[in-house]
Amino acid sequence: MGFEVNYAKLMDLGLDYARYLHFDGSNELLLELSRGATKYDFVEYERTIYELQGRGYQIIIAHPERCRAIQQDIEIAQRLFSMGCKLQASADFIAGGRFGKEKRPALKLLNAGLYDYVASDAHNAGHYRYFKKVCSRYVER
């Protein structure tokens, strides 16, 4: 169980608040980027990620397939991966569930081997069926 930290909210609070928002007992911070972010926003994202990494946090990017810039160019996700970020897919997006338009970029990221994690991102019990479907089809045991 976990929750993502919205990038804009973190910026509103300030980076010092990251110590209250990461997973207890770990240095992992699940960061959610803006859905409407453009490739130009990533200059600031990268600067912030480097700052957080410098403070000892392992950054995990939550559902990068939702981000418009990554939908248009998965090289942006590759850059995040190369920076040492881990990427976490939402199972329902790989399965083509809730929104649908995220399926194509999610499968591109999956096929490129960029995901470290697959999460349910369940907001209700019905969403777990997507997690089961993706695990049975794509996740190595």
* Strands side by side in the biggest sheet: 1-2-3-4-5
Order of helices and strands: EHHEHEHHEHHEH
Q: How many domains is the backbone divided into? A: 1
Can you tell me the CATH topology?
Answer: TIM Barrel
* Silhouette: globular
Which stretches are low in confidence, meaning pLDDT under 50 for 5 or more residues running? none
Description:
The structure is a single chain. The protein has 141 residues and is an alpha/beta fold. The chain has a single domain (5-138), classed as TIM Barrel (Alpha-Beta Barrel). Helices cover 43% and strands 14% of the residues. It has eight helices and five strands, in the order E-H-H-E-H-E-H-H-E-H-H-E-H. The chain has helices at 7-13, 18-21, 42-54, 68-72, 75-82, 91-94, 103-111, 128-138, and strands spanning 5-6, 28-32, 58-62, 86-90, 117-119. It has a five-stranded parallel beta sheet.
Summarize the structure.
By secondary structure, the protein is α/β, with parallel strands linked by helices. It has one domain (5-138): TIM Barrel, CATH 3.20.20.140.
Structure characteristics:
globular; 8 helices; alpha/beta; 5 strands; 141 residues; TIM Barrel; 5-stranded parallel beta sheet; 14% strand
Give the helices and strands, then pairings:
Layout: E1 5-6, H1 7-13, H2 18-21, E2 28-32, H3 42-54, E3 58-62, H4 68-72, H5 75-82, E4 86-90, H6 91-94, H7 103-111, E5 117-119, H8 128-138
